[in-house]
Amino acid sequence: MALDKNIAVLIGGVGGAKLASGLVEAVPPERLTFIVNTGDDFWHLGLKICPDLDTLMYTLAGLVNREWGWGVADDSTVTLDSLARHYQVEPWFRLGDKDLATHLLRTHWLRLGHSLTEATACLGERLGLRATVLPMCDEEVPTMVNTVERGELGFQEYFVKHAWKPAIRAIRHHGCEKAGLSPGVRQALSDADIVLIAPSNPWLSLAPILAVPGFRDLLPGLAAPLVAVTPIIAGDAVKGPTAKIMRELGLEVSAREVARFYSGLIDGFVDDRRNQPFAMNGLRTVQLNTLMNDQADKVALARALLGWIGGWAV
Ligand code: GDP
Fold first, then answer.
1. Ramachandran category for residue 266: left, alpha or beta (phi over 0 → left; psi -120 to 50 → alpha)
2. CB-side exposure of 74: number of CA atoms within 13 Å?
3. For residue 99, which of 125, 73, 81 has the smallest C-alpha distance?
4. How far, in Å, CA of 313 to CA of 308, rounded?
5. Is the per-residue pLDDT at 1 higher than 80?
6. Distance of CA 112 from the midpoint of ligand 1 (Å)
7. Which uninterrupted H or E stretch holds 248?
8. How far, in whole angstroms, is CA 196 from its chain's centroid?
9. Cα of 200 from ligand 1 centre, angstroms
10. For residue 263, how far is its CA from the centre of ligand 1 (angstroms)?
């Protein structure tokens, strides 16, 4: 068990947050740093919305709507309903009243000149988080989705407004050439004894992180082993568009294809025991139960994968 190890986790939203809530029970949370995708972020009604950061923070703070895996539990939509009723603002992006508090405060701090890293740290501190939560970078690098039916869409237009129905042709990380590794991200990676890639969507949640200039180049030089967890179980995604995107990009929907996506970066791959076993040159693999239906599954997976890594790497 990696109780005295520093663990950095590259992570997206709902799928990743499931593993995160297991990890914070399996190791001291102070040892955990989450490096979160911000490619999904956008400005909406004058507010800066960071869906993956919020999903993770609400999860770790015990505030999350458990049924959805995102948003705040027992939230209302009085503001959104008023915007629709009185001002004909189409409520396509769901923002609960309690959730709005986070967006208001974050936007306030950003407008005062604080970085997203600083604003996130302040939100996390006030929510009582013991783990560190970092955005992948401070610059805005919105994910743009080029679709067959509707041309290029902003990520939330694709994901929420059009319910990920349009077929993806290509994905672009707008402005990523102007982004860079923040001091916090650089430090977290160099201090890490283990780097995990959560079972998040490789194309929509992990690719934006890896597209931050300097990120991909830094990883092979780290002393820490890098281990990814499959988001594909039994030939399908557990939730969301991962499998659909793989088909649209002409890829086989399998854990092997996910491992191939990370090839050259990862030392180990946590596959699911329901998947067809595969071997890849130089890659250590293990098959575990990665389906996290409840908190016990999440903690069991966190313990099992850290135990496995401890057996060969740290
Ligand atoms: P999003 O940004 O909210 O879409 O969330 P992520 O990118 O973090 O996660 C989406 C991925 O999580 C999907 O590919 C799912 O297959 C995967 N996922 C969701 N739940 C589970 C689970 O219980 N086990 C595993 N292995 N993957 C999961």
1. beta
2. 2
3. 73
4. 9
5. no
6. 34
7. helix 242-248
8. 12
9. 5
10. 20
Q: In the block, which residue shows the tokens 């939203």? A: 13
Please give the single-letter amino acid code of residue 99.
Answer: D
Q: pLDDT tens for residues 237-246? A: 999 999 999 9
Residue at 298: amino acid letter: K
Sheet containing 32-36: which strands, arranged edge to edge?
132-135, 32-36, 7-11, 194-197, 226-229, 268-272, 284-288
Alpha carbons 198 and 15: distance in angstroms, whole number: 8
CA–CA distance, 78 with 186 (Å, rounded to integer): 41
From atom 12 of ligand 1, which residue's Cα is the shortest distance away? Answer: 15
> What gap in Å lies between CA 249 and CA 237, rounded to an integer?
15
pLDDT of residue 4: 85
At 186-241, the pLDDT tens digits run 999 999 999 999 999 999 999 999 999 999 999 999 999 999 999 999 999 999 99
How far apart CA 26 and CA 45 sit, in angstroms, is 39
Q: How many residues does the structure list for the chain? A: 314
Shortest-distance atom of ligand 1 to CA 17:
8
